[in-house]
Amino acid sequence: MTTQTPARSNAALFETARAVIPGGVDSPVRAFGSVGGTPRFITSASGARVRDTEGRDYVDLVGSWGPALLGHAHPGVVEAVREAAWRGLSFGAPTEAETLLAQEVRRRVPAAERVRLVSTGTEATMTAVRLARGATGRDLVVKLAGCYHGHSDGLLAAAGSGVATAGLPGSAGVPQMVAAQTLVLPYNDLPALEACLEQRGQEVAAVILEGAAANMGVVPPLPGYTAGVRRLTAQHGALMILDEVLTGFRVGPAGWWGLEAVEGWVADGQGGPVPGSTHSARIWPASTAEASWVPDLLTFGKVIGGGVPLAAVGGRADVMDLLAPLGPVYQAGTLSGSPLATAAGLATLELADDQVYRAVDAASAQVGQVVSEALSAQGVAHRVQRAGSLFSVMFGDSAASSGVHDYEGAQAQETWRFAPFFHAFLREGVALPPSVFEAWFVSAAHDEEAVEAIAAAAPAAARAAAQA
Ligand code: PMP
């Protein structure tokens, strides 16, 4: 028998992984496909930092792609999960924690009159679409180019995130008949939606859109766009599904809906106001009556599970009550409402108070500013685009002068500047999301020290971007 020396370098682990896992990863963007090089194999994370298998620490701007609002391994969350684990990992029976979490979601987002817990964002949007079809008796779904709603068959057309990173129009393996049920329209283009609904409105079950698009880089809705989607869907009897998997409980206590429809946040055409400037006293909206628009259904994920697989669909009681066992729309899950996930989610939301959102806002503003200043100092045309505390850097003159408002614009930026920019940051100990089409995620644990480390690394990254 031969004993293998344990592989410890990132490269060795990646090679071993590739022999057994397609591409060496369980989610495509992790493979560094568009930036090249070797992904870092993470062994632990704490606060604003992750550590790789070679023992190097990085200031982390991936944040597990969203869940880590409080920073990694927050003691309050870890302790809640540990306690829950001792009581049993999974029962396949109802628990009180599920009700408490559903109540907390409804307290923050009163439009979620009923909440069903699932395990992934993909399941949440898939369920929302099925519900909309069940409620309306119509088949077509309108999605917007560059928005990503998970990897269910019908929602992969012109999707952002990893689909954009890999430069794919959609996915193989999606039957033509299924793809034909999805109509793709440009984001931020109300006339296009109006024309589409004029023509085929009778067949459209739902329009699904991200709270703020953040899977083609961050592209906030233009003033009036989301309210316009609400008006047009209502006019044509289609449901509006607001996908807050990424934005929910991250950009504010009540997600994007709270920020835009309650607090009145608008993109100002210059990348948006600095977060925090529009909301000095954050409040939970007491009822939907305080909002300028209300979606029929919402989907949540990421932060709601605090880093453990959990997501949710919520919305109008009359629509949600069509779900089995009450109604004819089937949906189920062996691990739905997992005790570990509900414990992590409840602890996370309990800890995510005003102070946390203010800290995330502040860190986001600072990081965006130091990176932008470094790029400007090197003469790199760019724009930091924001949607509340979410932001990303768009490269190129056109992005700098007029901003990016849709998928076409996102793809037209100087994408080649990103890989050298990314790798220079990585060499300096800062881990960005490995794609120009992803948002940067800061947390409440991104303190002054973390921001200083990013500021110290930024000039080298900006030089690399300038020389690309
Ligand atoms: N919707 C949005 C807006 C997302 O950003 C994502 C994931 N990035 C999803 C849905 C899918 O969630 P999951 O990866 O948990 O399936």
Report on the architecture of this protein.
With 468 residues, the protein is an alpha/beta fold. The chain has 2 domains: 10-73 and 355-467, Aspartate Aminotransferase, domain 1; 75-352, Type I PLP-dependent aspartate aminotransferase-like (Major domain) (Aspartate Aminotransferase, domain 2, 3-Layer(aba) Sandwich). The protein is 37% helix and 13% strand. It has helices at residues 10-18, 75-87, 96-108, 121-136, 161-165, 176-179, 190-200, 225-235, 255-262, 317-320, 339-351, 354-377, 397-402, 407-412, 418-427, 448-467, and strands spanning 42-46, 49-52, 57-60, 114-118, 140-144, 182-185, 204-210, 239-244, 297-300, 311-315, 382-387, 390-395, 430-431. The strands form 3 sheets. Strands 4-10-9-8-7-5-6 form a 7-stranded mixed sheet, sandwiched between helices. Helix 8 links the parallel strand 7 (204-210) and strand 8 (239-244). Helix 3 (96-108) packs parallel to helix 11, helix 7 runs parallel beside helix 8 and helix 12 runs parallel beside helix 16. The longest helix is centred in the C-terminal third of the chain and has 24 residues, at 354-377. The protein is globular. The chain starts with 9 loop residues before the first helix and ends with a helix. The chain binds 4'-deoxy-4'-aminopyridoxal-5'-phosphate (PMP).
